[in-house]
Design brief:
With 215 residues, this protein is an alpha/beta fold. It has a single domain, classed as Rossmann fold, CATH 3.40.50.150. The protein contains 7 helices and 7 strands.
Length: 215
């Protein structure tokens, strides 16, 4: 996206919502922290307001986004880099334990996703993980393109197969992980989030979770 589209996106589709802090602090403690070594390094691609990276515990935390505002939202101790998530040239090979991205891949063309995965594969240590939270077209096709910046289509099946073709082994795949958006009047509370995560049937779930290990 060019600079004008990026600024317009944050002014319309991705406005500030204080409920994200509650959501992501709970998700990090209940789901994601188990994959991130406390003495390790973690990178968030498309970090935007740094909801994930500010709430995860790691020795080195790195936020990457093309939006200049990422530098303002990064917490103390988080390195912020204004650049594309398809170019991680500032990182050494095999220097990262976990790469995370939420609602990022669908904003890239397929060839850009392949470039991004090659970079992720390069910077991850052996056994390092890529974690993706992503709209699942198979469960959210009616609303998938309500976001005008979505340019590629991914289901839990297609993303799993694509990751396998690019040198990753999928360890965990949840086709229904979270609701598609937070744009509702439903309350956001740590207890309710924990109940939702534990519930076998997840109403309104349109986002998937994929955890893949670097081969």
């Amino acid at each position: 996206m060019d600079d004008g589209v990026v600024e317009g996106y944050f002014a319309t589709r991705f406005t500030f919502d204080s409920r994200r802090t509650v959501l992501w602090s709970t998700l990090c403690s209940r789901v994601f922290q188990q994959y991130v070594p406390s003495q390790g390094s973690v990178v968030e691609l498309g970090a935007a307001r740094c909801d994930f990276i500010n709430n995860i515990n790691a020795l080195r935390r790195i936020a990457v986004d093309v939006w200049p505002g990422v530098t303002e939202h990064a917490a103390a101790g988080v390195e912020a880099h204004v650049r594309s998530g398809t170019d991680l040239g500032f990182l050494d090979a095999r220097s990262v334990d976990v790469v995370f991205a939420s609602n990022f891949v669908e904003h890239l063309q397929v060839d850009e996703v392949r470039t991004m995965l090659k970079e992720v594969h390069r910077v991850l240590r052996a056994g390092g993980r890529l974690i993706l939270v992503q709209p699942n077209y198979r469960t959210s096709y009616k609303r998938y393109f309500d976001d005008y910046t979505h340019v590629s289509v991914w289901s839990d099946i297609s993303l799993r197969d694509f990751l396998s073709a690019e040198g990753f082994s999928v360890e965990r795949l949840e086709p229904r992980f979270l609701p598609l958006t937070m744009k509702s009047r439903l309350p956001v509370h740590p207890f309710l989030i924990r109940v939702y995560l534990a519930f076998p049937f997840k109403p309104l779930a349109g986002q998937m979770l994929v955890v893949a290990r670097r081969d």
